[in-house]
Amino acid sequence: MTSKALIDSAVINSTTAGSKGLADRLFAHWFSRLVYAQIWEDPQSDIDALQLEPGSRILTISSGGCNALAYLSTRPSVVHAVDLNAAHLAMLNIKQQAIRHLPDYQSVLSFLGDAGQEDNLKRYQRHIREHLDSNARAFWEKRSMNGKPRYHYFTRQTYQHGLLGEFIGLSHWLARRLGGDLSKMMEARDLQDQARLFDQYVAPVFDTAFFRWIARQPVALYSLGIPPSQFEELRKDAPDGLHLLFRERMRHLACDFPLNENCFAHQAFARRYDTSCQTALPLYLQEQHFQAIRSHIDRVHGHHTTLTAFLQHQPNNSLDAYLFLDAQDWMDQGQLTGLWREVTRTATQGARVVFRTGGSQSPLEEKLPSGILQQWETDPEHNRRLYATDRSAIYGGMHLYRKR
What we know:
47% helix, DUF3419, transferase
């Protein structure tokens, strides 16, 4: 199936009707291009929650690929990376081939970390191009709007491309027009400075009349990958207005973790990674994990399909860990039940599932049949502690379920 057909099948469901039907179709069309050049969930929180051990068999959504690669640091036996969007799998594949075939760690860091050097054209042409799978090569060789092949993104700050990267750029422009300046956050020297600069240059933007209006428009969040159904879950957590919810989540990102330990904050406020500081890099690009990730790079396998369709072809008791990002916020009751029927069948005893939600509440207790739900256990208080560790900070909840 094409990316559009797969995305349509995920977004357009039993809740698609009336005005939401039009919004669902618009979102599905918008989401069929490259959305995430980098992922926006914290893999360290995932690894800690799942207690990943050597030999684990993992299923994850690919998205920008950073997390699937980060899990290799735990030496799993396999990482299956599933995605509806072929552009995300092309991003995963180019990162995978860069790690496998570039000469050394520094060249990988230049290509995937700095992602803005002119020499990256030579790196792509000499070391990466011939190893890409056919779909990924077709994606990266296709010319973008400026007439250059897409692999030129790696000479022009790759992570500023894709819908999310463009959204962040637009947010910087809009914040300046509304009297703020997101880039000022990068002047902070410590957590106290971060709080001061946030209150001075970022928080006031959320209280402007224009931002209050923007926050009420679902289409404004499509570039964050937030479909209409997830937007409704956000509204449930925002009785006093979505602008306040967004402000507090931005505060979590900006103020609750040191900037030199938060790659997500660097992308949000500097629009690039700091390659001079190892702790400010994504886990998969940190030198301490490079050899483990490179030696296990062939254990990542991309799949262009849905989670449920992938699981239907897996044996019983064959997977130990599942990472669903926020995909379940897209699902109606039938889709969610179909997914968890296959999860329950394929999960080993003690297998763990981690996912995020736009709102604070897990959908499982409300939507899953009791026969499936009673085979799993969760601890809401532990989930709240997990959420507090997630440096990406854009979600309302992080949830861990364990097979009894």
